[in-house]
Amino acid sequence: MNSVPRQRLVVIGNGMAGMRTVEELLRRAPVRYDITVFGAEPHPNYNRIMLSSVLAGEKTIDDIVINPLSWYAEAGITLHAGDPVVGIDAKAKIVTAASGRTVAYDKLLLATGSKPLMPPLPGLELPGVVAFRDIADTDAMLKAAEAKQRAVVIGGGLLGLEAAWGLKRRGMPVALVHLMPTLMERQLDVEAGGMLQKDLTERGLHFFTQGQTERVLGDTKAEGVVLADGRSIPADLVVVAIGIRPNVDMGKAAGLDINRGIVVGDDMATSDADIYAVGECVEHRGQVFGLVAPIWEQAKVCAARLAGDNVATYATPPLSTRLKITGIDVFSAGKLAAEDDSDEEVVFRDATKGVYRKLVVRDNTLVGAVMYGDVADGGWYFDLIKGGADVSDMRDRLIFGQAFADSGCCGGAKAGMDVAAMADDSQICGCNGVSKGAIVAAITEKGLTTLDEVRAHTKASASCGMCTPQVQAILSFVTGADAAAPQAMCTCTEHGHDHVRHAIVDQRLKTQDAVRKALGWKTEDGCAKCRPALNYYLLCAWPGEYVDDYRSRFINERVHANIQKDGTYSVVPRMWGGLTTPDELRAIADVADKFQIPTVKVTGGQRIDLLGVKKQDLPAVWADLNKAGLVSGHAYSKGLRTVKTCVGSEWCRFGTQDSTGLGVKLEKLMWGSWTPHKVKLAVSGCPRNCAEATIKDIGIICVEAGYDMVIGGNGGIEVRVTDPLVRLSTEDEVLEYASAFMQLYREEGRYLERTAPYVERVGLAYVKKRILEDDAGRKALYARFLFSQSYAQNDPWAERASGGVDSHEFQPLAVVS
Amino acid sequence: MNDWIDIGTLADIPRLGARTVDTPLGEVAVFRTNEDEVFALINKCPHKNGPLSEGIVMGRKVACPLHNWVIDLNSGQAQAPDEGCTTPLPLKQEAGRLYLGLAAGKKVAHA
To answer: N or C: which end of chain B has fewer CB within 10 A?
Structure first.
């Protein structure tokens, strides 16, 4: 036993800075302190930076929790969340919380963060005005977004832009008011700021730059804002995101030296030697903080001091900035522009591609970088800035990035990062403050081999994910696996998907066991990653011969319904081309009544979803639907989902062809097929494209002269507009060409790869070669598709409703009471 | 003291699959591996209560259908780096029949 009694550490502030300090402290001195943490918010510690991703719907609150409540318990930390501290008696060394609780300390850590900066505007107190600071603010914004109201965001910096984009993603019309002429003027130069504004305007945001907000409109709630030049912008939600200011309340309460923030020295101690402060509440050498990298550094130094290290000192590292808006890449570090005659600017601009780079060089060293569009080299430039390296011998190539600058030629052989040349303390993951050295150490000490493992153990690239390519490159470098080598299907094998598929066909492997034996699988019966893939590859290669293995299918495909978060299922009957009849609708209504199905919803694929069906009811639900002629819509499958149509020439005054009829024909031809991932089609009757064919896997757009076939679109997370493939003149041609492309994708797409990444991987030229330039090859693909379909088109619901297949799936084995 | 309750035969469970048993403890998932071993777990993933009986069985593990956590059938432990545990229950095979160990005093009715 340790004979020295533990000291008491009280932490005020349960945010990122405070808990990072505690984590570092526990690593250094796990038993030195009894730790008590007070937090004003009723939540465990979460990643505040990622609130913008929560707002944009890319992450949930659960996803951004850094330390769950169990972590506090395991570390022996007493957490009082939702109980803010209201008083500090620095003489008696006691803190008092709102609840009246008092706790004595030996050392006190202030990590109270910042408050949103609120301008002195009339109307700010109205309901409907929020800041963008915490989970409560985010919730308020999400609620407003649900009501599809209009929003105004005041502030065109990082936070304001991320808030605006998140609200836009949630479907709100959004206007953004910014005081300065260009966006993010503290991080971007005029050129990059202008490009950013142009891109975001194209994405539907409205900007009011050089806009000074004068007041918020409204009597009982916010109704808009008025600008000093008289412009007024109606809105139901006003988000103020013009900046932050250190929250110094606790520092004042303790009688500490306060300037803009709580003043700390290089040792992170305040004017009271037993009180430390870290994060956005502090001021160090006249500087206050808002970005995460320097705060991690403060946490490290503060923890070292608390652990008894008397020499650790803090110095603000150079800062870099990135914007978290999906699809918009911005990076900046150091100086934004030449400051005098001895500074030089090197600029690269490709307006068509939307790429811009500016480097600022001073005395043969790089002192600043601004990048827009392609930011892959951002980390490398940042390292050059931090290291102060002499860049004179690569100056003329510097602007083209690392691969080019290092190789001195066209770079092809050495594209990507030079991991070997990178210093161990180069920061790779800004969100989690993980250096190259830490990643390398985790890989070697723990024998990590996959990106997921590296994420799990180091948190690198686990937050915003922007550094994934760098982490991957380090992994390849350390493990010696060739970066160009295909990724293994899973940990059961070192073979990639393409190799396995070729082996199945070349060696005529016809069962999963045969594949696993022939290719040296490390596991007897595979895993949840490779089994579904092998099952699909075998089904595709040997139609009519291979027997589908239901134990290798995800639950949705096994029970032909979609599992929901509460363990119930959703059922979607097929509506051919989106057409239905009164009888079908009556049957659906009757089923919903009879089985007390709580939610009935029209889907985006023009059919009806019955949600909340109990598993044991599924066969009876299917039997009733079957009786009305309805069959499975395969809304759960890696296979053909829907063929969406508009009404076309039958009714529409603009329709050029019978788009509905063609959609029905396509769906009747393709339903039941299994594919690497889901496949959605659409047929529009004219170029107005009401069926949204240009974001489908296969789209047909009817024109007077025939049918334009487009491929490889996607409306999901990564929106991708289709590539035009060919104009056809008859419906029969459409059926043939569409089937041929479908079969090409079935034979070459990797399991869980949609057509969009497939087309990007193989290239449109390749698809054209196979489908357009090789008539015999196309006809052979079409024939193989038809052959495969002759075994695929059995309604899975009918098979199960009749009790013929898997009846055991739907009943418990026994009931014990 | 456990009662050993007859819940059916090995053949009632598909290889690499699972069936459920309704018990006073809630739903119990009974798994059968490729090697015909059987295991019983409370049918709730430690992550978000996903029904483990609906997952893909591999070796002596099952992947939860909701978010792919991998749970050890013998111990109920989640595979690292995920952390958590679901409760394993005693299960034995005798002469082709399966017996689930539950606290004394329970009866059985076959579904």
So the answer is: N
Per-residue model confidence (pLDDT) at position A465: 62
**Block mean pLDDT (10 aa), chain B, length 111:** 85 90 91 92 92 92 90 91 88 89 64 47
pLDDT at A595: 95
Q: A329-414 maps to which CATH number?
A: 3.30.390.30
Can you tell me the distance from the alpha carbon of A321 to that of A333, in angstroms, rounded to the nearest whole number?
6
Domain spans, chain A:
7-113+246-306, 129-242, 329-414, 427-483, 489-553, 560-627, 644-786
Could you give the count of Cα atoms lying within 13 Å of A707 in the half-sphere of its Cβ?
A: 25
Helix (H, G, I), strand (E, B) or coil at A750: coil
Residue A446's pLDDT is 81
Q: Which of B58, B71, B110 to mutate to test the interface with A (most CBs of A within 10 A)?
A: B58
Task: Quote the pLDDT of residue A486.
Answer: 61
User: Which regions in chain A score pLDDT beneath 70?
Assistant: 1-4, 324, 326, 403-418, 431, 462-466, 480-486, 803-808
Strands A94-97 and A114-116: unpaired
If one counts every other C-beta atom within 10 angstroms of the C-beta of residue A32, the result is 18
What pLDDT sits at residue A390? 87
Interface ipTM > 0.85: no
**A684 min Cα distance to partner chain B (Å):** 35
Q: Looking at beta carbons, which residues of chain A come within 8 Å of B107? A: 816-817
- Please tell me chain A's helix, strand, coil percentages from 3-state DSSP, rounded to the nearest 5: 35, 25, 40
Does domain A560-627 fall under CATH 3.90.480.10? My reply is yes
Q: Which pLDDT does position A417 carry in this prediction? A: 57
Report the pLDDT value the prediction gives residue A558, as an integer from 0 to 100. 84
B105 touches chain A (CB under 8 A): no
Q: Which residues are within 8 A (CB) of B64 and not within 5 positions of it... i.e. 6 or more apart? A: B45, B47, B50, B52, B55, B70, B71
Token pair in block for residue A700: 């047909």
Assess A567–B contact: CB distance below 8 Å, yes or no. Answer: yes
pLDDT of A479 reads 76
Interface contact flag, A525 B51, Cβ < 8 Å:
no
CA distances from B72 to A51, A453, B36, B61 (A): 34, 18, 16, 5
Q: For B16, which residue in chain A has the nearest alpha carbon?
A: A551
Judging contacts by C-beta atoms under 8 Å, the chain B residues touching residue A567 are 49-51, 54
How confident is the model at residue A36, as a pLDDT? 96
Structure tokens given for A530 = 């490779």
Give which of A186, A159, A194, A160 is closest to A174, Cα–Cα. Answer: A160
B101 inside 8 A of chain A by CB: no
Residue type, B36: D
Domain A644-786 in CATH 3.30.413.10? The answer is yes
Strand partners, A176: A153, A207
Q: How many Cβ contacts (< 8 angstroms) between chains A and B?
A: 104
Residue A433's pLDDT is: 76
Chain A contact for B46 (CB, 8 A cutoff):
no
Domain B2-102 has CATH 2.102.10.10: yes
Which one-letter amino acid corresponds to residue A48? Answer: R
Contact B14 A555 (CB under 8 A): no
